[in-house]
Amino acid sequence: MLSELNWTRVLSVCALLLGACQSGADSLLGEQALQLKTVSWNAKSVPTGTVFAVADLNEDTVVFSSLGAMVFTAGLPLYTDSSVQSWKSATVIPAGNLAGSWLVGIDGNGKVRRLRDRSQMEDVSDRYGLQNDSVTELVAADPTTRTAFALGSQLAVSDGAKVTRYPVAISQISGGSSRVSGVVDGAVVTFDTRSGNLARYGVGAPVATLIDTAGRLVVATEDSLYRESGDSLTKLYMSSDAPIRGLVLSSGVVWVQIGDTLAVLDEAEVRRAAAGKIPSDGKLLASSTGDVWVLSQGTLQRFGEDTGGGASEDQWKNTVQPVFTRLCSLCHMPGGSANMDLSTYKSWVARKDAMRKRVVEMTPSPMPPKGAGSLTQDELTAVSAWLDTVP
Ligand code: HEC
User: Fold this and answer.
1) Which of 316, 326, 332, 342 should be mutated for ligand 1, with most atoms under 8 A from CB?
2) pTM
3) Which among 49, 245, 319, 331 could bridge 66 via Cys, Cβ 3.0 to 4.6 Å?
């Protein structure tokens, strides 16, 4: 793959549009209760050593630990690549050839390694011209095409054909809708990977940022949550009793760590679990399932919302959600083009009759729509079998 050095003019949008990036009016959301449950992910409780990072994709989970890269499939240990035993972080990015996704980890030397054949972590740094760099962080700037690599004093962006480097010293990066959010000199910024524009926002001391599935910047500071609306950030939530410590996007769900518990930021409310659910020194890590990982002192736990769905919900997660990710997420994420969020168990239950008609019976018109892919026979059987479990 070609790597070129392309110094693009970096412009601060706020310097031009006076006041455009100040924080806007408060619009505080109501708070509801969140029921949490611990999700089992290591059915045989195999020892994992000291865990540094985790990432999951479809039925595979890779735990990056002092024992190596441990591959679990459907909760069972499959293989451990013990050749590298020090890791910085892990995530899912568009595949180098843009065919699907790669589960990747950054090793202790800043090399990018992807899971290959569900067994080895192959060094792919040279595909991005990064063999002489030390990558500190990487994110999907877009789920299917763009990957951004933080290199300390530069940001490198791959669009699948070429890699462009920008003189942007950004850290704590997140990505989405072709934008990368993060922190430069203690201030929140977004970097548009298409135009090369850097925008600064008038919020100090960020704890974390992300770009949600509707393409909006979300910022957590120690006491507040903000979301982008038009040209400014609106304050949505204030925590007066415990500090906000983290924020991640898991398949459309915005998880927030508040003190020693978790909350979910929805469109019109914040739902917060009771105190004492997680270690307060924990670090949140995203999961492609919509659940969230909590890493504390080298130990990993996984949490999800307990919507009372019991076995039917577990079956949905294991057999239907992968179909959603493969065929429906393109249009049916929150804020997606179909304007209908089907990313959760609840949303499928609420539309079970329409699901049977459109997806299984394909009347009056099929879902996915013609030309947007179709379910395999196994997937149809799985959806149909799950629909039978819904009361
Ligand atoms: C290319 C975009 C696209 C994809 C991919 C897609 N949908 Fe849709 N879907 C839409 C749009 C747009 C509508 C609303 C118009 C309509 O009903 O046809 C819709 C409507 C629906 C409805 C009707 C809901 C109701 O209450 O009437 C269901 C159910 C549905 N989709 C399920 C799915 C499922 C399940 C998948 C994946 C297996 C999927 N869709 C993939 C665009 C898409």
Assistant:
1) 332
2) 0.79
3) 49
Res 96 pLDDT > 80: yes
Amino acid identity of residue 163, one-letter, is: V
Peptide bond into 279 cis (omega under 30): no
Give tens-digit pLDDT for 61-82: 999 999 999 999 878 899 999 9
In this structure, what DSSP letter does residue 29 have?
P
Amino acid type, 14: C
Q: Domains in the chain, ordered, with CATH? A: 2-305 (2.130.10.10), 310-389 (no CATH)
d(CA 85, CA 117): 19
The finding on whether 333 has its CB within 6 A of some atom of ligand 1 is no
CA 231 to chain centre: 24
164 with 4: CB under 8 angstroms? Answer: yes
Cα 350 to ligand 1 centre (Å): 14
Tell me, what's the pLDDT at 19? 39
Q: Of residues 281 and 322, which shows the higher confidence score?
A: 281
* pLDDT at 9 > cutoff 80: no
